[in-house]
Design brief:
- The complex is a heterodimer of chains A (about 120) and B (about 110).
- Chain A is an all-beta fold.
- Chain A is about 0% helix and about 55% strand.
- With about 110 residues, chain B is mostly beta strands.
- The chains are: A mainly beta (about 120), B mainly beta (about 110).
- At the A-B interface, strand 9 and strand 10 of A face strand 4, strand 5 and strand 9 of B.
């Protein structure tokens, strides 16, 4: 149990376009979801924390208008990279925690974004 | 403040040799500790977790870790490395408030 699915796994887009990445908890209700960005050979950088039905909490230095996060249901959170530029190219990963949170996180497969 | 330090960004072992990946943490409250593994171009997968029960924790794929409060350590071990163990390993600490702190990661290389 506790499967998180992330889609798409890879996306290539032109500079200036917007890209949406979906994160779904398939067999549990995710009270909280997290979005990370991972640069090559580095650890995960937390971008934002989202709770169902409320605004996401962004980490310092993360542009809210650039990275739009929506958590419309207990099983779906989306990250939209607006007006993408080549410097937004990265590996984006989502994770989710369950009710009765013990700190264990369930991760999606990750999405590789390449902006041309 | 909570923090996690993974000693050694790269560890190389021969197939069949002992794997030891080091993790030290800093926390002002009793922590929950985790080891996650990441294969190339994939998300993270839980290897094992310590949540204040037994101090020696067994995980998947033959890995285990021991929580040592006096040393503030949670080192990951496996008696015999396999080629398929080659991956990036992350130690993480959780102390509540939906905030998990990840270490910088250790890349494990396994030589044939």
């Amino acid at each position: 149990g506790a499967v998180v699915s992330q889609h798409p796994s890879r996306v290539i887009c032109k500079s200036g376009t917007s890209v949406k990445i979906e994160c779904r908890s398939l067999d549990f209700q995710a009270t909280t979801m997290f979005w990370y960005r991972q640069f090559p050979k580095q650890s995960l950088m937390l971008m934002a924390t989202s709770n169902e039905g409320s605004k996401a909490t962004y980490e310092q230095g993360v542009e809210k208008d650039k990275f739009l996060i929506n958590h419309a249901s207990l099983t779906l959170s989306t990250l939209t990279v607006t007006s993408a530029h080549p410097e937004d190219s990265s590996f984006y990963i989502c994770s989710a925690s369950r009710t009765g949170n013990t700190g264990e996180l369930f991760f999606g497969e990750g999405s590789r974004l390449t902006v041309l | 403040a909570q923090s996690v330090t993974q000693l050694g960004s790269h560890v190389s072992v021969s197939e069949g040799a002992l794997v030891l990946l080091r993790c030290n943490y800093s926390s002002s409250v009793p922590p929950y500790l985790f080891w996650y593994v990441q294969y190339p171009n994939q998300g993270l997968q839980l290897l094992l977790k310590y949540t204040s029960a037994a101090t020696l924790v067994k995980g998947i794929n033959g890995f285990e870790a021991e929580f040592k409060k006096s040393e503030t350590s949670f080192h990951l071990t496996k008696p015999s490395a396999h080629m398929s163990d080659a991956a990036e390993y992350f130690c993480a600490v959780y102390t509540g408030g939906f905030k998990t702190i990840f270490g910088a990661g250790t890349r494990l290389f396994v030589k044939a």
